[in-house]
Design goal:
2 domains; 6 helices; Jelly Rolls; 294 residues; alpha+beta
């Protein structure tokens, strides 16, 4: 190879490496495929999303009574959202994670080396592989493991995990023990979204639109965030730092102040402790010598 072709080879190599990096980044990114209009809260802005969009860590999603959605990543994991469902996208140290505040989701996950964690107000689940349907409210969680295996834990006893394999059903009301059964409760089956009775299928084959960046957002209001701010979920710990800028203006500040009983972590934002006085350096007084006349 002569000196003339070397720069060209280097440029081609750099271009190929950059292209591969971009493809890898896109492959690991989760895409939201909405069916109807989905509310997305990103950072401190609210968007109405009706087209595919790439999700980011910390995104809060909500479907209404007439909408549903599907989330897919490059590894084949699928999360379906039913109507009236609210979830948060997070990131776990060794896999994916989301928080289910309320509503219905179904997950299909095939990678045993990358567990998928789901936090709910009364029960934490980690799907190792297979498919599961979950329903959550602020006071109760119920789930049915269709296939595969998972582990369950109570939020107040996260280190004590119970394995679940095969077709098993589990539910837990706030403050009560975990109840595991061989088959779902009839009320669970009756209320489950009908599409969740079938295996999940990828939406990429039937959706031709490419992901777009959300546009025309508006600042989040207290009403948008009230249920999340008081949610009994681990992700709540990140909200003070994230939404602190909103508390610098009205009416968000007054609305938080009115709910401090339920939001004690915001007290230091609204009523910061007085600053410690700055101590000035004190010059030591030199002791005068006393001469005694003889």
């Amino acid at each position: 190879m002569n000196t003339r072709t070397l720069p060209l080879v280097l440029r081609i190599g750099i271009a190929l490496a950059t292209l591969c990096a971009l493809q890898c980044a896109q492959a690991g990114q989760s895409i939201l495929f909405p069916d109807g209009t989905i509310t997305l809260i990103r950072a401190t802005t609210v968007f109405a999303v009706d087209a595919p969009v790439a999700l980011e860590q910390g995104d809060l999603l909500a479907t209404d009574a007439h909408a549903n959605a599907q989330i897919e990543d490059g590894d084949g994991t699928i999360v379906a959202l039913g109507a009236d469902t609210r979830i948060a996208i997070d990131a776990a140290p060794h896999g994916a994670e989301l928080a289910l505040l309320s509503g219905w989701i179904k997950i299909a996950h095939a990678h045993t080396n990358a567990p998928f964690s789901i936090d709910t107000p009364t029960l934490d689940a980690t799907l190792l592989n297979g498919a599961a349907v979950l329903h959550a409210s602020r006071d109760a969680t119920a789930l049915f493991l269709e296939t595969g295996s998972m582990t369950l834990a109570l939020p107040e006893h996260a280190d004590a995990r119970e394995p679940l394999d095969g077709e098993r059903y589990a539910e837990r009301d706030a403050g009560k023990p975990l109840d595991v059964r061989p088959r779902p409760a009839p009320a669970f089956i009756d209320a489950m979204p009908r599409p969740f009775r079938d295996p999940l299928a990828s939406a990429t084959a039937r959706v031709t639109a490419k992901p777009v960046a959300p546009a025309q957002g508006r600042p989040a209001t207290y009403a948008d965030l009230a249920d999340w701010l008081s949610a009994p979920l681990a992700i709540r710990r990140s909200f003070v730092a994230r939404f602190r800028p909103l508390a610098q203006a009205e009416p968000f500040r007054s609305q938080v102040r009115q709910n401090l009983r339920a939001l004690p972590e915001w007290r230091r934002v609204l009523c910061p402790p007085p600053a410690m006085p700055r101590h000035q350096a004190v010059t030591p007084v030199q002791q005068k010598s006393i001469e005694v006349e003889s």
